[in-house]
Amino acid sequence: MTGHARGAATLLGPGDDAALVSAPDGRTLISIDTQVQDQDFRLHWNNGYRTTGFDVGWKAAAQNLSDINAMGGTATSLVVSLTLPPETPVSWVEDLADGLTAAIGELGATACSVAGGDLGRGTEISVTVAVLGTLDGGNPVLRSGARAGDVLALAGTVGRAAAGLALLESAAPFDSLNEPQRALIHTQSRPQPPLAAGPLARLSGATAMMDISDGLVRDGGRLAAASGVVLDLDPLELKRQAGSLSPASDILAADPLAWVLGGGEDHGLLATFPAGIQLPAGFTAIGSVQAPGTHTGPGVTIAGRVAGATGWDHFAD
Amino acid sequence: MTGHARGAATLLGPGDDAALVSAPDGRTLISIDTQVQDQDFRLHWNNGYRTTGFDVGWKAAAQNLSDINAMGGTATSLVVSLTLPPETPVSWVEDLADGLTAAIGELGATACSVAGGDLGRGTEISVTVAVLGTLDGGNPVLRSGARAGDVLALAGTVGRAAAGLALLESAAPFDSLNEPQRALIHTQSRPQPPLAAGPLARLSGATAMMDISDGLVRDGGRLAAASGVVLDLDPLELKRQAGSLSPASDILAADPLAWVLGGGEDHGLLATFPAGIQLPAGFTAIGSVQAPGTHTGPGVTIAGRVAGATGWDHFAD
Q: Are the beta carbons of A23 and B18 separated by less than 8 Å?
């Protein structure tokens, strides 16, 4: 057992057949997620950017830490299984380990450490992380608890990673991009889930929560279905989010609202709170929770109109 | 929360961003392991055998459950991340889920259930399982606790899966094989780790333990190095193990001792116990623990001679 604050939850680390991790309240959260080369990331992007091992390690940690955050929990430990082609440079793998560790530290998951791992061969790079977390005796915030009359709120950003992806896939050379444009790519390659916000939302009485990994409309639809409600998005808030993506939308002549509604990899938190309470730090109201209509089921609407995955057509009509 | 005995440890299953699993003594064991197509299994073997989804699911569960067993623990939960080529038949994936569940039940991991998962695309099939387990308040049995004078013991089998692999890779058609030969292939495709033996060894005072996944000599070498001892194998016990592999060695004109010393995928347990105690049920003495010599370091020997990964040359000379 280590006496350090960081990684104090890991009672027994790598070197045996399994690691042993503290679960102080007698329960542990667990989630697992895989990133595969050419599916979840490209080593070489169209605009010339090269994904580093550091990027992949950061993103693998970030998206798993986000899953614990989305339950209102705090990560205690993660384990990594790496599949690598034999020709993968050792330096790339070392960068990946550095990226994992850096994300854990810089995103503020200070109780978390890498407790173990597994290494094998394959024809493509694949990185699977399983993460453990604690609720500190509290109840998990589920997708199913939203009630009509609640406030719908967002922590973190939405659409930035999708805008960054569009830049990576564009013909505009990376070297020609300005800082705000590179910052959007940075959100894609090294997402910044708001890790303080999840436990804070739980303690503040959030009724439902999830992280946005597949897009506001798609993930919102899942929360709406689990809760049996309609999530109605405020078009002014959507436009405000979209406006911040102008560094990409301007040079790509793209519709930034499609990134806001369909882009997921910022790993922001979507949560609902009872009306009338003060939203916890980091959250902004972006809509409201309503009962389904008599002829329509649970889902996502924008100012009362059914939202599509890219949203624009329905929103504009 | 389920009221059933099976899977009672899973407090919150699939459907949210993370699962919640009971950790009754305030700690959880965790291990992670990946199987990749054409590295850890072939869909079509040389002898005509076709690996089913059921086989892959079974093996993924079995080798992870074995890691918990090797610490003296009992599995509480597992999560699965699947990477599949788009052309993978749905029925193959359903078979995989059935194989996972069947292994959990038939191997006796009755407190364990599948708590969640993740599905993604890739060019090759990859199955990662992370497994959680409990020590029921006890101490984990590490690789580092063996002491000179201890008895070295084995639970389960060693060499059968390697013999089965040799049959799969041979020119002898699967359809031509007899039942004892098919049973060896069965150990390769659906290993049977002795899941009762790990917790029993812990309760019986085992000083060190690990599962044999990479071979008796290689894994024994790891335990020897961690403990700073020599593991001396009894040649009569090795020959007894080798003799049970004659259904394969006879038709392949192969040396069965190489399978016993180098084959790992049976997932038997290698453990050390203080001399003089009665070995727990399922364990057979296969050697002894000795202090390293003045000129030789920790390692594995056979009747005092240094053992190689395939063992025969050193053993025979």
A: no
Comparing C-alpha atoms, which of B110, B108, B128, B132 is closest to residue B118?
Answer: B128
What stretch of H or E contains A142? none
Partners of residue A66 in chain B, C-beta under 8 Å: 17
Chain A: residue nearest B85 by CA? Answer: A39
Q: Between B53-70 and B90-106, two packed helices, what is the crossing angle to 10 degrees? A: 30
From the options 3.30.420.40, 3.40.50.150, 3.40.50.700, 3.90.650.10, give the CATH code of A143-316. 3.90.650.10
Of residues B38, B116, B128, nearest to A81 (C-beta): B128
Domain regions of chain A by residue span: 10-134, 143-316
pLDDT per residue as tens digits for the range B270-310:
999 999 999 999 999 999 999 998 778 999 999 999 887 65
All residues of chain A having their beta carbon less than 8 Å from the beta carbon of residue B24 are 26
With CB atoms and an 8 Å threshold, state whether B128 touches A124.
no
Residues 6 or more apart whose Cβ sits within 8 Å of residue A23: A76, A132, A134, B23, B26, B27, B28
| Length of chain B in terms of residues written | 317
ipTM value of the model? 0.92
A210-230 pLDDT tens trace = 999 999 999 999 999 999 999
Cβ within 8 Å, pair B26-A21: no
- Half-sphere exposure in the Cβ direction for B253 (13 Å, CA): 1
> Which residues, 6 or more positions from A90, have their beta carbon under 8 angstroms from its beta carbon?
none
Q: Is the domain B10-134 a CATH 3.40.50.1240 member?
A: no
> By CB neighbour count within 10 A (0-12 exposed, 13-18 middle, 19+ buried), where does B182 fall?
middle
The reply to whether B88 touches chain A by the CB within 8 Å rule is: no
- Residue B132 C-alpha, separation from nearest chain A C-alpha, in angstroms: 9
Are B132 and A83 within 8 A, CB to CB? no
Q: Matching CATH topology for B10-134 and B143-316?
A: no
Q: Which residues of B touch A120 (CB under 8 A)?
A: 34, 36, 39-40
A8 touches chain B (CB under 8 A): no
Q: Nearest Cβ partner of A32 from B26, B71, B79?
A: B79
Q: pLDDT (tens digit, 9 = 90+) per residue, A122-155?
A: 999 999 999 999 999 999 999 999 999 999 999 9
Residue keyed to tokens 């959260």: A29
Gap between the Cα atoms of B6 and B114, Å rounded: 11
Q: Is B1 on the interface with A (CB under 8 A)?
A: no
Tally Cβ neighbours within 10 Å of residue A119. 11
